[in-house]
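User: Show me a protein chain along with its predicted structure.
Assistant: Here is one chain, sequence first, then structure tokens.
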Amino acid sequence: MRGVTEAPGTDIPGAVDEAPLLDELMPWSVAPLRFGRSWIVAPDPRTLRTRWDRLMAAEGTEREALFRSSRARTPGSTVGALPGQRTGTARLAGESGPCPDPVRVVSGPFEEQWLLPDHRLIDTARPELWRVTGEPQVFVVEQGYLPGAGGPPLLVTAALPEGRSPAGRPGRIRPLFRRPGGREPNVAPGLLDLLGARYRREVGAHEWLAWTVAAALPSAAGCRVPLPRDPEVWAAGVALGRSLADVQLRGALSGAKPRLPGGRRPYVRAAVPDRPTTLAYASEGEFLDLDGGRISPVPEEAWEYRVGGVRVLEQWFARRTAPAEPGSLEAIGPAAWPREWTSELLDLITALALLGAREPERAAFAEGGLGRAELRAAGVLPPPPRARRPASVLDHREEGPGGQFALL
């Protein structure tokens, strides 16, 4: 584009500088959750139930020590229940009830874990996100900016995300829909109609999501989303984005589990030992070595796949094998490497290999077209202030502290 110069801190020169920010196009965003204590998250629900039972068996100062109090939460805190969750609202210091049913969360890029969904345990739970979870909701997680870091600037998940990068940098969580049940897309008013008229096709929320996954670019100011003028470029980007999003969502869009091309499939060639402590990769043989346990084939794209500069496979392994303080709730876990973890690792290898192989294709959609000035002239930008606030959700009845019902 003529007359456009590189903005300070922007990684991509030229047209990208005039491309609108994702923050302008998906106005409602939420800061990351803050769990506050690591023992409330685990790779399997059995571990969480055992930890809860251990906490309930303790009393007084022992319970407080196990709990790991913070400024936001202590065993004496009184808070309301999380939306959609049936948990106690009395002080945890006197709690003796059963374990809350664990729920799936994403505690980091491609890091699916389980969480105890009890508001008394979580420092900052972001209830506004819990109100809009469930099908067909998809969360767009904008990664915290890190100059020179590789990997996609956006990730998508159907499970509630914590919203932090592997290095702990805060990102932004943008629900695709502002209301439960897939109602009211979280898109700047008028944008989808404008794009539909330009591309001569109906542009809905999921098509918009696919384009952002394919085309979003990092910058110091936040993700930018180039918008092409050519309908064929838009259609090609949407096709790529749908494929990438489907892999990230583990086949939820296509209804088929992601698989490597050519019939290749990673599998266990040598059993993983009970307590592996190291993870290594052999590029010549395309295999992972877990203290003698061997998995192959592992394409190099999977091993080298990084988000925020951190290798995803290494962090996934570290989260399951890092030592914990003896006697703490974090130290309670499986006695040996569960078979389920191996299955999850095989699926993760497949997903990362597929994404890594197609990551270079995203460069074809870096050129912008519809700039911010044109979107302002069309009345799309700036988005109205109400679009940046959570929508009113009046069909939820939520329990407040001490069993009192909260008014929304």
